[in-house]
């Protein structure tokens, strides 16, 4: 169990259908942190429009389109012993559209994006196949704990087009 978890939820776009609650976001973050044996953590989750997502994705990844989740790990000097993990930026429209396109329940996809982003904040990545396999297996395991099915259980063609977003 976590000693302290602070999730600063920022809603920076209009009219989000079926936006998860603050408690949902905290629960999903907590699931990752408990699994990783992290006792104290602070992070921000910013829910944004496609415009803001595309601007950030273009600026920081040189990819000029809106994406589902961007992770910005905290870059603190070692002498600062703060539990700050960093920031997640999640594009609501992309998440809603992906869930519909992939035939997934919306809460399952929201939770997957949060878990995926938090794992990035903790240093996990999917640049090479071994790292991708490790990260995906953790995501599947954590989502199963939450009662959600394997988010990668769609066709290979679909996986190849969405994994790099």
- Helical coverage, percent range: 40-55%
Ranges with pLDDT <50 over ≥5 residues?
155-165
Instruction: Report the portion of residues in β strands.
Output: 15-25%
How many helical stretches?
6
- Report mean pLDDT, rounded to a whole number: 90
Span between termini: 32 Å
Task: Characterize the largest beta sheet: strand count, sense, and whether it forms a barrel.
Answer: 4 strands, mixed
**Cα-atom radius of gyration:** 15 Å
Helix-strand makeup class: alpha/beta
Number of strands: 4
Widest sheet, order of strands: 1-2-4-3
Categorize the overall geometry.
globular
CATH fold assignment: Collagenase (Catalytic Domain)
Number of domains: 1
Mind telling me the CATH superfamily name? Metalloproteases ("zincins"), catalytic domain
How would you portray this structure in words?
This protein is α/β, with parallel strands linked by helices and 165 residues long. It has one domain: 3-Layer(aba) Sandwich (Collagenase (Catalytic Domain)). It has six helices and four strands; from the N terminus they run βαβαββαααα. Strands 1-2-4-3 form a four-stranded mixed beta sheet. Helix 1 links the parallel strand 1 and strand 2. Helix 3 crosses helix 4 and helix 4 crosses helix 5.
């Amino acid at each position: 169990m976590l000693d302290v978890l602070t999730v600063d939820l920022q809603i920076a776009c209009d009219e989000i259908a079926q936006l998860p609650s603050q408690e949902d976001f905290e629960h999903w973050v907590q699931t990752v942190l408990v699994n990783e044996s992290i006792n104290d953590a602070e992070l921000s989750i910013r829910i944004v429009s496609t415009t803001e997502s595309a601007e950030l994705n273009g600026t920081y990844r040189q990819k000029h389109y809106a994406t589902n989740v961007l992770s910005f790990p905290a870059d603190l000097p070692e002498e600062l012993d703060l539990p700050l993990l960093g920031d997640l930026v999640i594009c609501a429209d992309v998440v809603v559209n992906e869930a519909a396109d992939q035939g997934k329940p919306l809460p399952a996809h929201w939770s997957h994006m949060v878990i995926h982003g938090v794992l990035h904040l903790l240093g996990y990545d999917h640049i090479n196949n071994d790292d991708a396999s490790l990260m995906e297996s953790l995501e599947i395991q954590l989502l199963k704990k939450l009662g959600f099915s394997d988010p990668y259980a769609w066709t290979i063609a679909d996986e190849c087009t969405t994994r790099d977003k």
